[in-house]
Amino acid sequence: MVVRSVVRPFVPREFQDFLSSGIRSFLLRLRNEMTMVIEPYDGYAQNELFEAAQVFLAAKQSVSVRRVRVTKSTKESHSTLAIIDRNQMLADTFHGVKLKWVLVSRQAGSGNPVHQGRKSAAEHGEQYFELTFDKKHMEIVDKSYLPFVMDEAKSIKREKKTLKLYTSKCIGLGPGTWSSVNLDHPATFQTLAMDLELKKKILDDLDRFKRGYLLYGPPGTGKSSLVAAMANYLNFDIYDLELSGLHSNEELRRLLVATKDQSILVVEDIDCTIQLQDRKLETQAAYMNRMPMGYQQKDRVTLSGFLNFIDGLWSSCGNERIIVFTTNHIEKLDPALLRPGRMDLHVPMSYCTSFGFKLLASNYLGIDHHELFDQIESAITTARVTPAEVAEQLMGCDEPEVALRDMILFLVNHKRKENEEVIEEKAGQSQLIEANGGGEEFEE
Ligand SMILES: Nc1ncnc2c1ncn2[C@@H]1O[C@H](COP(=O)(O)OP(=O)(O)OP(=O)(O)O)[C@@H](O)[C@H]1O
């Protein structure tokens, strides 16, 4: 600290960091101390201990810390003191053992020799933790303190409910990397408009840690909302895997290896991932090349490669992973995905029912009864409107009477359009029959 304050005005920041880290290690050698380095990544996999330390230390206020980072997510009502800032020291004691944490920061490419030749903090984000203690306490730190930090971080996270949404569409971060934002989706099982029995079945399955879910139904029926509700219920992060953005099975493998426990891996619109559809081509190519299925086409992700990795991920990662596929067209899916045992639960997401409407009215207007409800409920059972469309109508106005009258108008117009479409379709069909020389031939 003394050296730092003396040299600070004269010496560039990078050199100050280098000096202080050198002095620190020199002092350690004198004092018989030991330092553990905790980097954010282990190769391509995230180091869970690094994230746990961030959460754990953020919750530990200490008078010895003079600079903290302050953050606030939209979900939180007030700002929170985040992790200790770079090169600050935080002292902790565990069963009488004195420990010192420092978040060390380097400029990108500064090339500390300790980290050369492997994937390290230098390539990933330039920060890592140093945990220093007396050598003789190595065992207690390794066997008791670090597990304690992990457990504490888990329960702090559970309390704070700041979940993460990881996405694989990360332009600029290089292939096979996730980037994350806080998950602030408000959906819960209480606010979801869907069949009550189905809801209960999903909740039971989640409690028993069933692992694979296939959500199918038209756009706007709540597939993404259900995934968010699952994450909020389990307190799990979400990994949104964009398969069509990947170039190889190797890239896919790297992404899957980097996912953490207590997470939901989501592959949205799986029917639209063109490469996955053509299984026949894949079989043919495997045969021609005499290569094992799933590995013969290096420049794209293959269905069998994908399924192999998913099966491997499940078998090696215990019960704290859930995989969700969503599709608007279940009929287009490859049978390999629908095979019994592959997905534990197939969840149909449907157009809005009268029960769904009442729940949405309660969510958005805060009412459970209204004289216009009967009229709307009977209209909604025959109109094919999605919960998203109903939600949009109800959000349009805070005044229940106005919102419900608008809703009736919307349903009437919707029904009229639907009828017109049916008439047009029938007209098109009869023209086709005529063009083909009459109904009988068409029948054949
Ligand atoms: N079942 C539902 N219950 C409550 N709200 C819903 C439901 N379905 C849709 N919504 C509302 O509509 C919005 C859009 O729905 P969502 O994105 O979940 O549908 P989706 O089926 O995933 O659509 P897509 O297939 O286009 O991705 C949600 O943010 C939510 O406000």
UniProtKB/TrEMBL annotation:
Known cofactor(s):
Mg(2+)
Write down the chemical reaction(s) this protein catalyses.
Answer: ATP + H2O = ADP + phosphate + H(+)
Q: Which SMART domains match?
A: AAA
Xref: InterPro entries: AAA+_ATPase (IPR003593), AAA_N_dom (IPR025753), At3g28540-like_C (IPR058017), ATPase_AAA_core (IPR003959), ATPase_AAA_CS (IPR003960), Mitochondrial_chaperone_BCS1 (IPR050747), P-loop_NTPase (IPR027417)
Keyword list, A-Z: ATP-binding, Hydrolase, Magnesium, Nucleotide-binding
| An example molecular function term from Gene Ontology annotations | ATP hydrolysis activity
State the Gene3D superfamilies in the record.
6.10.280.40, P-loop containing nucleotide triphosphate hydrolases
Tell me, what's a Pfam family for it? AAA_lid_At3g28540
Query: Where does the record place the region Disordered?
Result: 425-444
**Does this entry carry the keyword Ribonucleoprotein?**
no
Q: Which PROSITE patterns match?
A: AAA
The answer to whether keyword Hydrolase applies is yes
State the Gene Ontology BP annotations.
Answer: response to stress
Q: Where is the AAA+ ATPase domain?
A: 209-353
Tell me its family: Belongs to the AAA ATPase family. BCS1 subfamily.
Q: Which PANTHER family match?
A: BCS1 AAA-TYPE ATPASE (PTHR23070)
Under which name does UniProt file this protein? AAA+ ATPase domain-containing protein
